[in-house]
């Protein structure tokens, strides 16, 4: 099964990446969050495979904490109009993430580190999301 994207046939498969946690001395609470997030998609163009990817970096000044949750905002390195907000529920040890690409929002949840980041990565690269390309 394929879907259309910018006039090219796109596979419906995805690539999900499980990141490493943030490691900052004297900030152990940040280990509940990724050091960066990557979304990707592949397509075939002119007989070559093209890999598109977007990297989101944590905005440490956005860190919030309440009695039940911690939150952190990640911004697309090419355009801050695209962001991901991650919430970590401390008691339940679960995550929720909202990805916004110019106002279009998608949500993922998970009950373990690898489960959550896989589900978030499954959201993939969205149409018109600022990204970089590699040709194979």
Keywords, please?
single chain, 136 residues, mainly beta, 7-stranded antiparallel sheet, two-stranded antiparallel ribbon, 1 helix, 51% strand, disordered N terminus
- State the domain count: 1
Average pLDDT over all residues: 89
Class by SSE composition: mainly beta
Question: What composes the largest sheet?
Answer: 7 strands, antiparallel
Q: Please state roughly what percent of the residues sit in beta strands, choosing from under 5%, 5-15%, 15-25%, 25-35%, 35-45% or over 45%.
A: over 45%
What is the helix fraction of residues, given as a range?
A: under 10%
Label the overall shape. elongated
Number of helices: 1
Model regions low in confidence, pLDDT < 50 over at least 5 residues:
1-10
Total count of strands: 9
Helix and strand sequence: EEEEEEEEHE
Computed Rg: 16 Å
What can you tell me about this protein's structure?
With 136 residues, the protein is mostly beta strands. The chain has one domain. Helices cover 7% and strands 51% of the residues. It has one helix at residues 113-121; strands spanning 2-5, 8-11, 37-45, 48-65, 69-76, 82-89, 94-101, 104-110, 132-135. The strands form two sheets. Strands 3, 4, 5, 6, 7, 8 and 9 form a seven-stranded antiparallel beta sheet that branches. Strands 1-2 form a two-stranded antiparallel sheet.
Question: What is this structure, in a nutshell?
Answer:
It contains one helix and nine strands; from the N terminus they run E-E-E-E-E-E-E-E-H-E.
